[in-house]
Amino acid sequence: MGEEAVETSSAGGSGLVDRHVAFVGALRTAGLPVSMAESLDASRAATAIDLLNREQLRAAYAAAVVKRAAHRATFDRLFDLWWPPAIGDGESGYAEDGEGELQEVDPADLDQVRGALRDRLRDVLLSGDDEALRRLARESVNGLGRADGQPGRQSWFTYRVLRALNPETLMASLLEAVLNGQERGGLAERVARQMLTERIKQFEEMVEAEVRRRLAEDRGAEAIAKTAVKPLVEQVEFLRASREDLANLRREVYPLARRLATRLTAKRRIGQRGRLDVRRTVRASLSSGGVPLTTIFRPHKPHKPELVVLCDVSGSVAAFAHFTILLAFALREQFAKVRVFAFVDTTDEVTDFFARGGDVVDALARMSAEADVVWYDGHSDYGHAFEVFAQKWPDAVTPKTSLLVLGDARTNYRAPGLAALRSIVRQARYAFWLNPEPRQYWASGDSAAVTYTEILPMLECRNVRQLQEFIEGPLPV
Questions:
Q1: At the topology level of CATH, where does 240-271+304-472 sit?
Q2: Contact, 8 vs 19, CB < 8 A?
Q3: Are strands 401-406 and 306-312 parallel, antiparallel or unpaired?
């Protein structure tokens, strides 16, 4: 079947309708919000396109069900599993014949096949032909990625293909061909190297996609989707976030910080009226014989929110600490006044590290080198940290301030410092605690979370979705 053809009869479903229902269900399982109306829109769109053109089908589905750019990668990966570009080998064999196709060969000739594929890969990388690169990825998986597994079942591996072809080792000869005698080490080489690196990465992604397609064909798309599809950025748990996840989180956190600032301002404005305007009230009462039937209040002045962030940066919550730094940067841009304090077993102010327009990595590096957050042994001591904060910065929290505590509330069986925390919270206008641990663990081991909830509201905040619920939902009191 050609590259643009839509496969509709593999093991994943008995027809277009079944495949549509299964695909929409997979999108919902992955976290994409696809309503019944959007599902129907996608099915109607499919009637208006050429079903033999796979990219038209992809575009039709995307237009109907994808609401956010951050969800597009998950959509594309699931689309490739449920609407694969080919079935079976997709090509005819393994070794190169006179027309450039691959024919099946004896295992003893794999070195020759590997050499032929490497030569073709070099030529295709130089040509910049995406379609040729995709065909070569499919042929490479067919020839080099297959391994015998259980009886009657084959396994497919990306690393076998990439280890055999080792495309990075082609860089020297590719640069020589692209530069064609130009001076090395200059701008031309840097541009060429970046272009070739991107092309090699594209080939590796095509190999990975082809391996997923073959595994889905053998084991079912539903089974492969469970491991092949990464969680959406709003579902990534802070405590398990990778470097790439944290980079994506930064784009999500900034708009949420703006909404948090707006919510705190709005709540103050709605929750209070200005003082009674006696002069205007008396003047209005003249029309009713001096009886103040209508009371007039002075306009409530909009409040510029002030914020104090108190965050645990110990090793047990390292990834969450990175997130809190991102959040502190975002909040710094939105609030009139923000003070940031970090602690492990003692507390230090790190506000100066969060200059407007600063860099998260630089802030983390400065915090590690300069912040005085370790007092005794470098293990979390919430009680001592709260006591130091209350003693050294007694005026940091005022009736105009919102207090945000970030940490897992695990005290290493040390005194929780309830009196100090209670005095801090009592001074704040609002106080909230965001905990990255699941709620069912709050009463386990050395966690003092349940005890702390008696002093201020504590919310489970394991990912961006829960942070969004905290910001957009009714604020706890």
A1: Rossmann fold (3.40.50)
A2: yes
A3: parallel
Map the chain to HEC letters.
CCCCCCCCCCCCCCCHHHHHHHHHHHHHHHCCCCCHHHHHHHHHHHCCCCCCCHHHHHHHHHHHHCCCHHHHHHHHHHHHHHCCCCCCCCCCCCEECCCCCEECCCHHHHHHHHHHHHHHHHHHHHHCCHHHHHHHHHHHHHHHCEEECCCCCEEECHHHHHHHHCHHHHHHHHHHHHHCCCCCCCHHHHHHHHHHHHHHHHHHHHHHHHHHHHHHHHHCHHHHHHHHCCCCHHHCCHHHCCHHHHHHHHHHHHHHHHHHHHHHHHHHHHHCCCCECHHHHHHHHHHHCCCCCCCCECCCCCCCCEEEEEEECCHHHHHHHHHHHHHHHHHHHHCCEEEEEEECCCEEECHHHCCCCCCHHHHHHHHHHHCCCCCCCCCCCHHHHHHHHHHHCCCCCCCCEEEEEECCCECCCCCCCHHHHHHHHHHCCEEEEEECCCHHHCCCCCECHHHHCCCCCEEECCCHHHHHHHHHCCCCC
Q: Where are the domains of the chain?
A: 16-82, 95-230, 240-271+304-472, 274-303
pLDDT in tens, the chain (477 residues): 344 445 443 443 357 888 899 999 999 988 888 999 999 999 999 889 988 888 999 999 999 999 988 888 889 999 998 988 877 766 533 334 434 444 444 555 677 888 888 889 999 999 888 889 988 988 888 888 877 655 556 678 888 888 888 888 888 888 888 888 777 778 888 888 899 999 999 999 889 888 888 888 888 888 888 877 887 877 877 777 777 777 777 777 777 777 777 766 655 444 445 677 778 887 877 777 777 767 777 765 555 668 898 989 887 776 777 777 777 777 776 776 888 899 999 999 988 887 666 666 677 778 778 889 998 888 899 999 999 999 999 999 998 888 999 999 999 999 999 999 999 999 998 899 999 899 999 989 999 999 999 999 999 988 888 888 888 776 665
